[in-house]
């Protein structure tokens, strides 16, 4: 009996076109309402599985800027806080996640990502 | 009091035993290994476990937050819904594109006030006023 093997990307729920070594783009159905993509500090990117390929590419480009910021040590987050240190001369600012509007484009790290992507 | 050779050796052994309490991991105990091979199981237990593997592989959440196929009866942590917890769900990312927020910010055009930045401005050093150069005598004429 013949059967067809599924590609790895289908099995693991990965968006193959935008995924790179060390930065898998994982398609998710359970992101919060209105959220198109998320960058995680483990190097993964979550995207809404319902988005078109073009939108996924745009979202991934945006999230990769965040991953760079994380790698440079300028941005970090925990379960309670987000810490942003724009450059070596700037003080580190700690934002409480409970009171901040996560993902708002006027935050410096988001602003930077929108400009670069 | 002088420490004898034997006393010193005993002391070092005591320190070393504390430092390497759990092998190469200094700080945390690796705990019992599960589902990765090497666990102590009896032959009868193993036979029972294999006998349970009757069904076809099932799609479940894997460690990375995606989904993978797992065989029923798999004893690892990843297959246990109670124990499995994707690394990303421990603290969900705040770095997100929120469609509603982006369009909302564009519509209102209202600048988001970064409170922390405003407070920071108060502490910024102000420029010192330039002191007048008293060495130049303005009243003096070049006659």
What does this structure look like?
- The complex is a heterodimer of chains A (117) and B (143).
- Chain A is α+β, with helices and mostly antiparallel strands and 117 residues long.
- Chain A is built from three helices and six strands.
- Chain A has helices at residues 8-12, 53-71, 108-116; strands at 25-28, 35-39, 45-48, 75-77, 81-84, 93-96.
- In chain A, the strands form two sheets. In chain A, strands 1-3-2 form a three-stranded mixed sheet, with helices on one face. A three-stranded antiparallel sheet of chain A has the order 4-5-6.
- In chain A, strand 5 and strand 6 form a beta hairpin.
- The radius of gyration of chain A is 16 Å and the shape is elongated.
- The N and C termini of chain A lie far apart (48 Å).
- By secondary structure, chain B is mostly helical.
- In chain B, 33% of the residues lie in helices and 8% in strands.
- In chain B, strands 1-2 form a two-stranded antiparallel sheet.
- The termini of chain B are far apart.
- The mean pLDDT of chain B is 68.
- Chain A binds chain B through residues 11-14, 24, 26, 28, 31-42, 44, 46, 59, 62-63, 66, 75, 77-79, 82, 91, 93-95, 97, 100-110, and chain B through 62, 64-69, 87-88, 90-102, 105, 111-112, 114, 116-117, 120.
């Amino acid at each position: 009996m013949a059967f067809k093997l599924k590609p790895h990307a289908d099995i693991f729920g990965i968006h193959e076109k935008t995924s790179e070594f060390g930065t898998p783009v994982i398609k998710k159905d359970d992101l919060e309402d209105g959220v198109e993509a998320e960058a995680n500090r483990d190097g993964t990117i979550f995207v809404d599985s319902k988005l078109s390929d073009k939108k996924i590419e745009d979202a991934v480009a945006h999230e990769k800027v965040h991953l760079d910021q994380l790698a440079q040590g300028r941005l970090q987050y925990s379960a309670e806080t987000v810490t942003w240190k724009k450059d070596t001369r700037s003080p580190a600012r700690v934002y409480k996640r409970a009171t901040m509007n996560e993902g708002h484009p006027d935050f410096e790290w988001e602003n930077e990502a929108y400009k670069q992507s | 009091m002088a420490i004898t050779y034997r006393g010193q050796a005993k002391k070092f052994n005591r320190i070393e035993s504390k430092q390497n309490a759990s092998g190469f991991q200094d700080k945390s105990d690796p705990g019992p290994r599960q589902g990765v091979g090497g666990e102590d199981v009896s032959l009868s237990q193993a036979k029972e476990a294999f006998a349970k593997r009757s069904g076809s592989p099932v799609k479940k959440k894997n460690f990375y937050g995606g989904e993978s196929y797992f065989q029923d009866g798999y004893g690892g942590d990843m297959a246990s819904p109670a124990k499995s917890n994707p690394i990303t769900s421990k603290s969900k990312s705040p770095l997100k594109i929120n469609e509603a927020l982006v369009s909302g910010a564009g519509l209102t055009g209202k600048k988001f006030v970064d409170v922390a930045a405003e407070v920071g401005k108060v502490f910024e050093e102000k420029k010192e006023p330039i002191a007048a150069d008293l060495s130049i005598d303005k009243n003096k004429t070049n006659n």
